[in-house]
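Chapter summary example: a protein plus zinc ion.
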Amino acid sequence: MTDRLYYHDSFLYDFDAEVREVTETPRPALILDRTAFYPTSGGQVFDTGWLVVGENPSDSSVKLRVSEVADADDGKVVHYVEATKDFKPGTRVHGLIDAARRRDHMQQHSGQHVLSAAFIRLFNLPTVSFHMADDYCSIDLDTPTLTKEQVEQAERLANDIILENHPVEIRFVAREEAATLGLRKPPKTERDELRIIDIRGVDISACGGTHVNQTGQIGCILLRKTERTRQGWRVEFVAGQRAVATARRDFTALTDAAALFSAHIYDVPQQAHKALDEMRTLRKQREQSQEELAAAQAAAMLAEAPEAGGRKLVVRTFADRDVSFIKLLAQRLTRLAPNAVALLASASPQPSLVFAQSLGLPFDMGALMKETMAKLGGRGGGSKEMAQGGVPGGDGLEAALKEIAARLVV
Ligand SMILES: [Zn+2]
């Protein structure tokens, strides 16, 4: 078993060790006799850093990047590296932990203990799991309901506890003794000896993770999104520098939004609401104008269209009207006149065709559209009275309309 130095000191960022095993498959990895690297477990993610041989860490030939650290089943800690190079069993190495990453993990994980304790103390809501991601963390609470007020109260109490700067103590106790300590949740492990994290006066848990020495080192805790899960409620949070970075990102996003409205950041929701209302009104007005325009244009087109065989044939390609407008126009044309056939095309933005006939005329617009689409490589169809299709390019639209018009006149 690897001697886990982080069990006793979470602030140990460098250490000396000896290589015990070197493996190449499935990935290059080293096992040491002792390590300060934390392997992923208990919701906390692994440390990264370097393993160095010799006295000169700036010499890249003797420095290995540790990209991931994992727990093996036999109690060993596996350090994944890009290549094992000249490392052999017996090689003396110096380990360097990425301290900024470790500090962040300590703030998140210790923040979780404090937050879980706050939910217990205030509402007796137990935490069933903890998850740490790259940008935020979350706990799952076993509860059917969770209100905004509860979230705010838990956040307030957690920050009070941080501010009170309680000592965080690590000790190892026998299983029987642990049972008398009033642990926040029963330990998962079957081990005879348990590692206890005691946030004095706040929380006692069995945990193998890395924690701060005083709650003040957590800095602060910020609760974020809450969402219903299958078994309860999930509460996202960020602690310490991560909370500051998140607040900074929020402020930047809000400031950008406020600049768009030339408004104060706190007025952004109201301004956005107003803008959406205006957009809805404008959309309605536009629809109405389009209807009116289509009606007027349809009347003018019918007046100009020649009558052949008792039918009015309207054939037209529009350069700058979209398909929804030419559809509207086709509807108007075939309703205004009892004997109209409309063959319309829109060249942009999406080349499209609309065929329509007044109710009771003998042609089949759907079949004509299918046939045209097959020729032009597009997709579309419709009913006997009205059909619509889209084609990949505008070339050939006019020729296709002319060809169909010639057939309908005959
Ligand atoms: Zn812990």
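Key point: The radius of gyration is 36 Å.
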